[in-house]
Amino acid sequence: MQDLEQLKQKLLDEAAEAADLDSLEALRVRALGKKGEITQRMKTLGQLSPDERREAGQALNQVKDALAEAIETRREALEATALEARLQAERIDVSLPVRPERSGHVHPISRTIDELIAIFGEMGFSVAEGPHIEDAFHNFSALNIPEWHPARQDMDTFYLKAESEDAERPVLRTHTSPVQIRHMLSDKPPLRIIAPGRTFRADHDATHSPMFHQVEGLVVDETTHMGHLKGTLIEFCRAFFGVDDLPVRFRPSYFPFTEPSAEVDIGCSHEGGQLVIGPGKDWLEILGCGMVHPKVLENCGIDSTRYQGFAFGMGIERIAMLKYGIPDLRTFYESDLRWLRHYGFLPLDVPSMVRGL
Ligand code: PHE
Predict the structure, then answer these.
(1) What whole-number distance in Å separates Cα of residue 128 and Cα of residue 197?
(2) Ligand 1 in contact with 289 (CB < 6 A)?
(3) How far apart are CA 318 and CA 208, in angstroms?
(4) Atom of ligand 1 nearest to the CA of 180
(5) For every one of its 357 residues, what pLDDT tens digit does the chain have, with 9 covering 90 and above?
(6) Measured in angstroms, how far is the CA atom of residue 177 from the centroid of ligand 1?
(7) CB of 264 closer than 6 A to ligand 1?
(8) Nearest Cα to 188, choosing from 344, 109, 302, 349?
(9) Which of 31, 141, 214, 290 has the fewest CB atoms within 10 Å of its CB?
């Protein structure tokens, strides 16, 4: 009995002092495992007389329970320490600045699209998309652009090969307006979308690129009128250029798909050769707009006696060049890293109307 008492103390000490989970497990096997010291002793109980057996059995069970408990206590402590060490070692400080070798820049086109989405998103518009390769119906006919219209000529439009001799030639969309058509055909009013994306025209010089970006806007509802068109676009121009008192002018114009149509100019001045956007004596044209032509609504199965709407479209490069002082359109697509570092934006600096653009 006395040596059992000593053994118990020795095992409990070892449990309390076990340096790690492995040695704790080794101890468990050595004492309580199949061939463990305590287990072996249990097996010898059969040789004792019944009275002795009861007493020795109780004593052994006590040692067994005490040891099991000590091992469990130590395991919990060791596990807590291990977890604490891991938490320390694997800590990530998310507020640290981006490592220099990782700091990419967001292209001004992407940035401008994000800003457009932030502004119009706040006004309740959602984003719609459509294909770059279109058919003549979506790109022209549904938009009330007649067969003879100069925009349809090869000089302005990129035509792709037709599938067969009597099939129509697909086009690279010349504007984002086909997205309005697709949206009116697939959804029911009320509609409120913007459609930013790539567009293509056979044009190439310092201010024109064969591929460029537009953003289209479309609102259709029962009570939508020209006042909504004006309010929306004035609000947009002021938010986008960050000038609260920016003068915005609507000039009568013509588009086959809107009636009446207007072109929108914003105020600017040229002080000492420097273009400044804001109140001044000059004007800059930035977008086209109008009330959706009843024929276009009807082409899309919308009852034009019940619904009306407005639409607008503008070049994304153009407004980005004006806002960020980028002088040459062609540089947008040259993939020059030095240009991107200069004109690009930090990836984590996402525009939002809450923080200001
Ligand atoms: N689609 C026209 C263009 O490319 C822009 C526009 C869109 C004008 C919608 C009015 C309404 O020039």
Answers:
(1) 9
(2) yes
(3) 10
(4) 9
(5) 668 889 999 999 999 999 999 999 999 999 988 888 898 888 888 888 888 888 888 999 999 999 999 999 999 999 999 899 999 888 888 888 877 666 789 999 999 999 999 999 999 999 999 999 999 999 999 999 998 888 888 778 999 999 999 999 999 999 999 999 999 999 999 999 999 999 999 988 777 899 999 999 999 999 999 999 999 999 999 999 999 999 999 999 999 999 999 999 999 999 888 899 999 999 999 999 999 999 999 999 999 999 999 999 999 999 999 999 999 999 999 999 999 999 999 888 888 887 777
(6) 7
(7) no
(8) 302
(9) 141
Residues listed for the chain: 357
Using the CB atoms, write b or e for 288-308: b if 16+ within 10 Å: bbbbbbbebbebbebebeebb
